[in-house]
Amino acid sequence: MFCLSRRSFACTAFALACVGLGAGAQAAEPIKIGLITALSGQSALAGEAITRGMQVAIDEINAQGGLLGGRQLELVRRDDEASPAKGVVAARELIYKEKVAVIFGGLDTPVSLAVVPLVNQAKMPFMGPWAAGTPITKNGSRPNYVFRVSAVDEIVDAGMVDYAQKAFGTSKFGLIMVNNPWGESNQKGLVAALAAKGMKPVGSEKFDGNEVDVVPQLGRLKAAGADTLFMVGNVGPSAQVVKSLDRMGWKVPVVSHWGPAGGRFTELAGPNAKNVHFVQTYSFFGKQSPTGEKVIDALKARYSNVKGPADITPAVGVANAYDAMHLTALAIQKAGSTDGDAIREGFYKIDTYDGLIKQYKQPYSPDVHDAITAQDYVWAQFIDDRILPVGLVK
To answer: H or E segment at 238?
Structure first.
């Protein structure tokens, strides 16, 4: 009887130990953060920039003890190849196989727009560090699980009009837009921004992402009297616009959304790439805040090809992703769990965060899911393959 009791006690102790080990293992389980972005193709540089911004922030959070009682963050990436269909497949895998707590959506508005209904249905928090399409966050869903630290088309479009007027003193605007949902979003935004000033474009043209000759569209805009072009397109298509302008011999100011910043624009567009002025949210050139200096040092330490600001490109990918990751971590901490609905509410509970781009003060509410405002943009151009602020408009 004694031996039986002794054996029972040992078994009970062993069982309790196993439970304790299991609880400890569960507490130490990493929190997975998913990323869907272009990791190959012409915009791969931007996908890598987003990765680096997120990873530097993750390194900082993990070094400070992680979240939710010591759980480390782990980045899980998927290449969407700029394809909406592949983005949806990647999102399903991250949600249902990898069991991520939050998904970051990368570069392309069409990809993000395809993923948005899925994440809202799955109650999966989604953070956008690049794609700027207005309907991404203003998607009509209640509750809405989609947040962003990036440009917003309708705000950028108003800024493009203001910038063109101040920088070039022009008034006859031609629109040259990529033929996809991102181009449509900006076409509507630019027409509205011009209408608010009592103007309208002299012409509006579209081009496909794989076109190599945009001379016919540009020729119509020139014949209509355009003295400034508003351009929206990612790296490859935007480069073709510049090369087509070269073939025409038409020297006209080009004010662009930030698509050209996402990859090998100067290589593909040639020497006149420098004539394109485009929007940014951050630059690592010039005097930096303590956070900016810290991020530059961390990038140098982690990535051997980063020697200085010129190697941190495109800067917006790094900066947006860095701030977005820290804000997401705050939301998880406020939530006290990795439950999607709790994290969504956690975003609304963020008070302040001293970030890289700015100090965020209550950046999110049920009606506001974009943390970047019109006051947070700067304008830039390529100078010797470096993205430098123009400095004319803040």
So the answer is: helix 235-248
